[in-house]
Amino acid sequence: MRLGFVSPIGSVEVDYKSHGGVTTVPLYSAEDIALLPVVRPSVDWRAVVTARAGCRSPLAALSPVLPGEDTVLLAEVGRIAGVGRVWSTRTRTATSRRRSRRAG
Questions:
Q1: 19 touches 12 (CB < 8 A)
Q2: Which of 101, 99, 79 is nearest to 31 (CA)?
Q3: Residue 104 has what pLDDT?
Q4: Is the pTM of this model over 0.90?
Q5: To which H or E segment does residue 70 belong?
Q6: In Å, how far are 15, 25, 40, 92 from 49, measured between CA atoms?
């Protein structure tokens, strides 16, 4: 999130009662997370996933993305992933439906 690769799509409040009270937890789109290796092929995702607890993440060495300067179109994601136009169209339609349900 700090790098600007993904943004929360919502949040929930979790009440831990005896362990510190209410905490706001950000929620992320599973689609955005799943597409990270495709959209960010320059990142060594294997090193990120296999980093041990307590060790510095390989992501810490990267510079944050500036808003509006790092946009990847869905068609470009499909080209990078090697999938056809039908996949892109179905994904775009499903995303539009989810957005309209949230707005309504």
A1: no
A2: 99
A3: 53
A4: no
A5: none
A6: 29, 22, 14, 28
